[in-house]
Amino acid sequence: MTSSNDISFRLPRSRRSVPRARALLHSVLGDWGVDQETLGSAELVLSELVTNALRVPAPGDRQVGVRIIRSVADGLLRLEVSDAGGGRPEVREPREDETGGRGLLLVAALAQRWGCEERPAGIGKTVFAELKAPDIVVGPAVREVAAVLVGADQEVRVWGQWRTVTRVRCDQGGGGAPAVLLEFDEGPSLRVHPSEPLTVRTGEHAG
Fold first, then answer.
1. Has this prediction a pTM greater than 0.70?
2. CA atoms 130, 79, 33, 142: torsion sign
3. How far apart are CA 36 and CA 29, in angstroms?
4. 192 forms bridges with which residues in the sheet?
């Protein structure tokens, strides 16, 4: 898959990260032309996966990783949430008087397939869910996205020129404000607010 089909970002271990993950997902899937029914299901699934990741005992400085992948050929949307905690998620059958514990039941009901994998590097695990998305479309070669959604190998229009992104890091700016640091194949790096709009194009369309 090309970078335009694979979006990754990291979130702090905070309750505010759940609505933030939903908002970012909504933005990405809107660009990909996903229908409202699939979008609603994806938001519910991602909310449950991020919520579960935040509940896992882990060091406070460990962030939660989110990855959104589309496969146009297969009509599939894959959501991945990674955490630094141990154990594996298990579907529970809560009693009728229990108010919680139904998150993974919801994920299993909405997803075509879901599961848990060890992270290839580092500690912890990745929980994934795949949803049918038959209306998913290929995005335009050039578009405007929030800085937090920019990925490696994409080209960004900065200082009047196209620069290829080699690395993206989430950082803290002045006064502790969140920031995204983009490093390029040439020239200085760029530090911007995560919501700053940037014009990007994917490597496959660059020329």
1. no
2. negative
3. 10
4. 180
- Residues 61, 154, single domain; the answer is no
pLDDT tens, residue by residue, 158-198: 988 889 999 998 876 666 678 899 999 988 999 998 889 99
- Concatenating the DSSP letter of every residue in 14-43 gives STTHHHHHHHHHHHHHHHTT--HHHHHHHH
- Indicate if 11 and 49 belong to the same structural domain: yes
Domain that holds residue 69: 3-132
Torsion angle in degrees (nearest 10) through CA of 110, 113, 117, 120: -110
What total of structural domains would you count in the chain?
Answer: 2
Is residue 137 domain-resident?
no
Spatial distance between the Cα atoms of 76 and 133, rounded to a whole number of angstroms: 5
Is 43 within 8 Å of 25 (Cβ atoms)?
A: yes
